[in-house]
Amino acid sequence: MKKTLITLAVLAAATGVAQAQSSVVIYGTVDAGFVSERGGKAGSVNKLDSGVASASRLGFKGTEDLGSGLSALFVLEAGFGVDNGAQGKDEGLFGRQSYVGLSSKTSGTLTLGRQYTPWYNTLSKVADPFAVGYAGSAKNLFPANTRTSNTVLYTSPNFNGFDADVAYTFGEKAESNKYGRQIGASAGYSNGPLNARLAYNNTSNDDIGVQAASARNWLAAANYDFAVVKAYVAYGANKGLKSAQLNNKGVDANGNNYYNYAPAAASTDSNNILVGATVPVGPAGTVMASFIRTNDKTAANADADQWAVGYSYALSKRTSTYASYAKIKNKNNATYTVGNNSNVGSGDKAFNVGVRHSF
């Protein structure tokens, strides 16, 4: 009897240790707002939209302590529309993120699966005062390069504010893995009020029977917090076929454009410049503003400018309300549209107001 009690006590203690070393968290964002769009072929469009400031999502993430500073981790994240309850269009069950990996305090983190690119993390977390959301999203004019499947991503530890990451995406096509291959990397410094980062993304356009130059995107971004205002600046350069696609920027998947004129061809040589700021207002408010210029350096000269302003008010740590407005000036048959975090929009002007809750 005594041995049995001792055995049960040991098992109970071991179970408690295992539970203490592992954790799984359910998290998500529920975001919906009223959106009014103007200036497109469809005329005025008023709608209830989902994921205006941040994409609505439901996720599961977990870690397990493996000892000696090593841990296992995973993320599974699904997108959905608050306005209709539907899963993201053309999106798998965990189409936003799905990866598993190992993390070491001294050696860095290695993850495998569908995940954000280093380029997109630089755009959303360092370059854009709107964090690629609201009407002022930098995705309206900058290439997005959002996330990739079949990706191996390595992230270094933080060394006195410096860190770097590199990603390799398998093309997984016959004959050559170069077909559809994507390579990305970024490096940066974050310490105190300064956050600066340089990112690169390369996508192969080669395919069976097709030899084409790759799409190459560079992005340099920085923000500095002066306490009374946080200043943002970014510069992007895009070269090669599909480096600055018009698809999802005024032209839908079927080639239909949102304006009453024929769209210019997608640029193979362009750059983007962004300047912006966020200003705290009172204990819970934030004003956001930015100006973005896209310079098409090809013969088409299809340039565009975007002005944007927004306001967010935190009702609590998890819930906020917001309003934003943006206007794009397209030139020489450029067809960029004012969208938001989740949708591309249908015209050159948009206003939105909504509420976001995170859990």
Automatic annotation (TrEMBL):
It is found in: Cell outer membrane. Residues 1-20 form the signal peptide. It is a multi-pass membrane protein. The keyword Heme does not apply. Keywords: Cell outer membrane, Ion transport, Membrane, Porin, Signal, Transmembrane, Transmembrane beta strand, Transport. Residues 7-333 form the Porin domain. Gene3D superfamilies: Porin. Homotrimer. PANTHER family: MAJOR OUTER MEMBRANE PROTEIN P.IA, PROTEIN YDDL-RELATED. This is Porin. It comes from Janthinobacterium kumbetense.
